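ok so I'm stuck.
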Amino acid sequence: MAQKKQKLEDIVTLVAEALGVVSYADYFTQTPLFTNLRIENGGSEALADLTLTVSNDHGLLVSCVRPIEEVPFESAVEVDLGNILSPLYFVGLEEVKTEDIFVELRRDKQIIASQKLTVTALPFDYWQGTSGNAELLASFVRPKLADCERLKTEIAAQLKKWGAASDLGGYEGSDKNAVRQ
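replied:
not stuck anymore, here's the structure
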């Protein structure tokens, strides 16, 4: 008795999960857009010569076409695209926008699996707040600005008046004991 051959669309699953909010800070810190991007093969034969395409209509992403050599039978392959966010998009963005991201898996130019994700894009100088990745706040710190240098000079003068150590170089200097004081 011959077995009926399953369609590729029925045996391949594309699992895509992305950050909910993205900003220039994500690009700057090289944070991957996808928290989970996986191709699952539920069939009894390995799949080869696949192409994964990730796109956005408004320039949020740099061009991303990734060939997938093989997905073994009854298993999954995790795909790491790295940082595909476009810095030029965030520089030109002036207000919070909702953007659609399209993820498509193709074989011989035929779409066998696809997913549409929605992310919120923040302008260049916006922070995600504590509901996002709070550690990205450090992306906005610029210790070499003229205002910072002026403030450091004023603080050093005040500390000198009080008779306290006025070494504010801390981690910038090479003296590890200066940091400990």
